[in-house]
Amino acid sequence: MKFDKRYKPELCAGVKDRRFYLNNAHLDVDKARILSADGSALVCIPVELSAGDLAGPISADALKAARKAPTVDRDLEILARDSLIAGGITFPRASADYKYPDVDRLIPRLTQADIAIDARLLLVIQNALGASGVSLQFAKNPDGTIDPHAAILVKPIYTGSTIGGNPNALGALMPMRCS
Predict the structure, then answer these.
(1) Where are the domains of the chain?
(2) Per residue in 66-121, pLDDT tens?
(3) How far apart are the C-alpha atoms of 103 and 107, rounded to whole Å?
(4) Which of 41, 93, 108, 130 is the most buried (most CB within 10 A)?
(5) Which CATH number fits domain 2-105: 3.90.650.10, 3.20.20.70, 1.20.810.10, 3.10.150.10?
(6) Beta bridge mates, 157
(7) pTM (2 decimals)?
(8) What is the mean pLDDT of residues 43-53?
(9) Calpha distance 59→67 (Å, rounded)
(10) What is the reported pLDDT for 110?
(11) Cα distance between residue 42 and residue 59, in whole Å
(12) What pLDDT sits at residue 97?
């Protein structure tokens, strides 16, 4: 399989998760995509399949090795067989004796508005609020639809070491302009 090496699906994989099948990315050959999820975050990346690629787990080590391999374009390549071959290195493949979660039912199909945000600025606001996470609230038009041009209210979520933060603190983020 091949895909742009700027994508890093291993960042969304579980780490020592008891649901072992989430600890690796997963190649879905039926839909020509690589999936990666940890139970809270999910990425779904289209891939170009190679002849003989087999569905199943793709390890972070194989993805990293493929990303480091010299290429003439931006694509990384992994041969996904009984083992994984990336950057000239062969990696053992974890057992594929499992059913990867049905991610298609998790991906929202209906949207009221497409709103582009700068994730870097959202993280700046989260850090400025001293929060461990944030919730986003969107302004609505008089007809009840979301206004994609209005500022987005950013409210802090305090958990763990951030418990005790002021719940009245807030931030605002302007949507990005997309052409």
Answers:
(1) 2-105, 119-173
(2) 999 988 888 899 999 999 999 999 999 988 788 898 888 877 776 667 888 999 99
(3) 7
(4) 93
(5) 3.10.150.10
(6) 133
(7) 0.76
(8) 94
(9) 13
(10) 64
(11) 16
(12) 86
Query: How far does Cα 169 stand from its chain's mean position?
Result: 28
Residue 152's DSSP bridge partners are 173
Backbone phi, psi, residue 67, to 5°: -65, -35
Give the integer Cα–Cα distance in Å for 91 and 66: 11
C-alpha triplet 157, 158, 164: angle, nearest 5°: 140
The amino acid that residue 55 corresponds to is A
* Token code pair at residue 40: 């809270």
Strands 33-37 and 42-46: antiparallel
* Under 8 Å between Cβ of 145 and 161: no
Query: With 90 as the cut, is the pLDDT of residue 62 above it?
Result: yes
What letter would DSSP give residue 33? Answer: E
Total count of residues recorded for the chain = 179
Rounded percentage of the chain residues whose pLDDT exceeds 90: 50
